[in-house]
């Protein structure tokens, strides 16, 4: 029998649909530009969600100037919504909205099918790798908020690199290099063996939400009086948390997925709630939280003119035309470089052949042959060997 989707899965697939719709629309937008055609539709601004560095710089700009930047403001709006959600429901974004989180769920399912006892990292390695995402997040935050001068932030926000970062991001995937593809494949394979490898060890966005989530009053609470110790919660927890051994889950790895709550056979033994279990948050409430904060945040940004980027379609067209010219130039340069290299190879080959035939000739001449005794004589005379 086909299993019904949980509210969380509905929300995840809804957001995946939005991401795919925006991604395809943006792809068509750029495809038109690449052909030199002005697209007859607007660029989907939601693609700015995939520019987290631009969003972080936008946040710095907002703090310093009290204004939302005009370039890719949607990225900053989504970033603020996501960080705000962490104050409400910790890393719920990872488990309820993020498409990579959904992919990790599917890989988790495969992992469960492949292994009766899924492989687990040794504790020391798990702790060591677990630091990586915090180091990466801290590096960017430190550089952007404590090292870069204000002028540098504004310079970057208005630079070509940032203005057209969305197109470059698309080209990264549409013209993916073998190295990048290899890295993605390795990460997928690692995630097949080790649950949520990317989310647990490498995602800096997850690290930031984990830290903000520490300030959230929402926690999973276990009532030891109701718990029968079946450990189903431990088994289903994607954050690998020993839920059955704690009364309150404070771990930054808790994704607020509510799997432990839904799998617990004892009513009232587990709850995801505010303030020591007094205000329970059901999956339906979580669904409402995400739909409401995203709709309200994006709606407010649209109404106040902080959603659309201030880059005109003409500027996008000019950028792609410039890129096409640069590419054609590079191709020609590469071809003439290849021609020069080929010419050099041919010349080296010819020189080697000439040297070989010369030395062979000398060798031939120096060697006496029975068939030509006169030659032997001449040679001997010529060489002064009597
Ligand atoms: S503790 Fe519960 S809510 Fe948190 S990640 Fe584990 S299963 Fe999900
Ligand atoms: S699933 Fe529920 S009953 Fe079982 S160990 Fe966890 S909290 Fe206790």
TrEMBL record:
Top-rank taxon of the source lineage equals: Bacteria
Ranges of biased composition (kind: Basic residues): 377-386
Q: Does the keyword S-adenosyl-L-methionine apply?
A: no
Flavoprotein in keyword set: no
Transmembrane ranges? Answer: 12-30, 70-89, 124-149, 169-194, 201-218, 285-303
Localisation per UniProt entry: Cell membrane
Q: What's an example of a GO molecular-function annotation for this chain?
A: iron-sulfur cluster binding
Q: Which Pfam families match?
A: Fer4_10, Fer4_5
Query: What is the predominant subcellular site recorded for this chain?
Result: membrane
Alphabetically sorted, this entry's keywords are: Cell membrane, Iron, Iron-sulfur, Membrane, Metal-binding, Transmembrane, Transmembrane helix
Q: Where is this region: Disordered?
A: 357-386
Name listed for the protein in its UniProt record: 4Fe-4S binding protein
Could you tell me which species this protein originates from?
A: Desulfobacter hydrogenophilus
- Identify the GO cellular component terms for this protein: plasma membrane
Basic and acidic residues: which segments have biased composition? 362-376
Q: Which SUPFAM superfamilies match?
A: 4Fe-4S ferredoxins (SSF54862)
Matching InterPro entries? 4Fe4S_Fe-S-bd, 4Fe4S_Fe_S_CS, NosR_regulator
Domain 4Fe-4S ferredoxin-type: from-to ranges? 218-246, 248-275
